[in-house]
Specification:
It is a single chain. Helix content is about 80%, strand content about 0%. It has nine helices and no strands. The protein has one domain.
Length: about 210
Amino acid sequence: MTGVHAGSWVALLVLGAFHGINPAMGWLFAVALGLQEHRRGAVFRALMPLAAGHALAILAVIVIAALAGLTVSPNYLRWAVAAILIGVGLRFLVRHPHLRWAGMRVGMGELTLWSFLVASVHGAGLMVLPIFMGMSSAAHGSAGASFLASGTFAAAVIATAVHAASYLLVSAAVALLVFEKLGIGVLRKAWFNVDLIWATALMGTGVATLVM
């Protein structure tokens, strides 16, 4: 494993933790389900579908980028990804996109879909995409069609699983801490502007993509 690859794996773990700690990414939903049913098991039951939906959103972005890389040069693709990241970040600064949902009584399939949509709307996959592009470029000297090389795509699937595992562990830790000890009121007491932090992360990733 090269230094570049080692850094990429660490970045995937850090981003997974960052996504997991964001209440909008799922742990708050898990806590709400636990409070609704008055049992810890409901929190645990929600976590795996949340992680699965998050992973699918990440993988979907990678596949779309891979298909785009068949016809678009890696340099143009890099600029396009950076522009989209910065644009989504600016959107969060202007207005936070809310995903409307019918109610709290959801099955596991519906919860997976909810997590997929939330991660997609928030640009979670876009935030992770430059790391995959860097890994692919380091391995093959190209960030485009090489995504579809069997070895690289298999590595992308594994890397998505690593990212999702980090997301799951952090989401589970935060959800249990809030459910068991702190309570939902901690969000009011320890207030911080999640949207501003998320927007800054998106735009920062976009700028980093331009110079990578």
